[in-house]
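for ur thesis appendix - Orn/Lys/Arg decarboxylase C-terminal domain-containing protein. copy paste whatever u need, i formatted it the way the template wanted (i think)
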Amino acid sequence: MTVWDATGTLNGYALQRELERRGCFAELAAPRHALLAFGPASTDADAARLIAALGDIARQHRLPDRPLRGPAAPPLPFPAAARMSEPVAFGLTGSSQAVGSPIVRHVPLHAAEGLRAAAMVIPYPPGIPVLYPGERITAETAAYLQELAAQGAHFQGTPDGKLELIEVIDERA
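the 3d part is after this line
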């Protein structure tokens, strides 16, 4: 089940945290929604706990008093103006071949525009790489990653998991 706040008050990560405080654990969260999984072992009590948690969250954040700003359905996890990056070469034995075992340095994401990524950057969820080794970091990509980080996304392929720093190829070497 996908849940989201159509008032735009809570993003998906905040909604996940609020649900977890009330004993309901989302399978994953994204910038605008949280996903809950029900299976054969789920009970009526589980559903009742979720309904109570959602009601409590709505009351605590005064959601019924706020105008609807969000869509009637959760949006896709990627920006509408998604773009294709320039081609990046990949080797059969791993992406490090594509960039020839480069010298890597760590830079703040806001300073990485125009540089080439040295490692995949994968926000979770959805677990799909946004940057590949050797790919040039554009202003749009950096802004998208900064937005995800500000909302609470977790990242694989970054030195700290928070995307404060990003590994780039030192092309001066």
